Amino acid sequence: VLVKNKDLYDFRGMADDVKTFSLSIEDIKIIEDIVLEENSPLMKARDMFLFVCYTGVRFSDLVSFQKTS
């Protein structure tokens, strides 16, 4: 037994109503069509966001990608 404190056996987390939303294809297209200055940080952030949207890759996995030749 990993837990020795018997008071924790009856612990139950509180259930909260969580509101979720998702972007539509039209919303993603609007973001894609935004004109940004070439090589700006916002352009890189937008491109990374769109890559995640279109591929389903988790952001934590995306930031670990490395360029190879």
Characterization of the model:
With 69 residues, this protein is an all-alpha fold. Helices cover 39% and strands 0% of the residues. The chain has helices spanning 25-32, 41-55, 59-62.
Q: Keywords for this structure?
A:
single chain; elongated; 69 residues; mainly alpha; 3 helices
Describe the structure concisely.
The protein has 69 residues and is an all-alpha fold. It has three helices and no strands.
Ordered list of secondary-structure elements with their pairings:
Layout: H1 25-32, H2 41-55, H3 59-62
**Shape category:** elongated
* Strand tally: 0
Q: Helical content, roughly?
A: 25-40%
Question: What's the average pLDDT?
Answer: 86
Q: Specify the structural class.
A: mainly alpha
Order of helices and strands: HHH
Determine Rg (CA atoms, Å): 21 Å
Cα separation of the termini:
51 Å
Helical stretch tally: 3
- Give a short account of the largest sheet: none
How much strand content do the residues show? under 5%
Poorly predicted spans: none
